[in-house]
């Protein structure tokens, strides 16, 4: 699984459409799950070798969110192995960032 906007995530069953965010610790992509064409958001840890603490925080983010059934909370679909870390696959409700909204 490779997170590049040229669609190379396809080997893991996802096609990357665009990068939504790139921060110091994470990268977020809009993608489509190929088996059912479901729009998703994929959040990845940025470091090639994340710390144990980063891995635990990422896993906990998934565990907590999957148990919340509250309107307006993004639903996590899965937590998948990605290189030396995880890929968090989330519901894509089609939103845009505040930066994009304010510049429109």
Automatic annotation (TrEMBL):
Keywords: Kinase, Serine/threonine-protein kinase, Transferase. Residues 14-104 form the Protein kinase domain. InterPro entries: Kinase-like_dom_sf, Prot_kinase_dom. The keyword Transmembrane does not apply. One of its GO terms (molecular function) is ATP binding. PROSITE patterns: PROTEIN_KINASE_DOM (PS50011). It comes from the Bacteria. This is Serine/threonine protein kinase.
């Amino acid at each position: 699984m490779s997170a590049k906007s040229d669609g190379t995530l396809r080997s893991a069953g996802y096609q990357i459409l665009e990068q939504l965010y790139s921060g110091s610790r994470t990268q977020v992509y809009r993608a489509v799950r190929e088996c059912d064409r479901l729009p998703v958001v994929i959040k990845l840890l940025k470091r090639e070798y994340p710390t144990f603490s980063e891995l635990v925080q990422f896993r906990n983010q998934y565990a907590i969110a999957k148990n919340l059934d509250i309107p307006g909370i993004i639903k996590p679909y899965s937590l998948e192995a990605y290189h030396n870390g995880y890929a968090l696959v989330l519901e894509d409700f089609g939103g845009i960032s505040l930066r994009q909204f304010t510049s429109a």
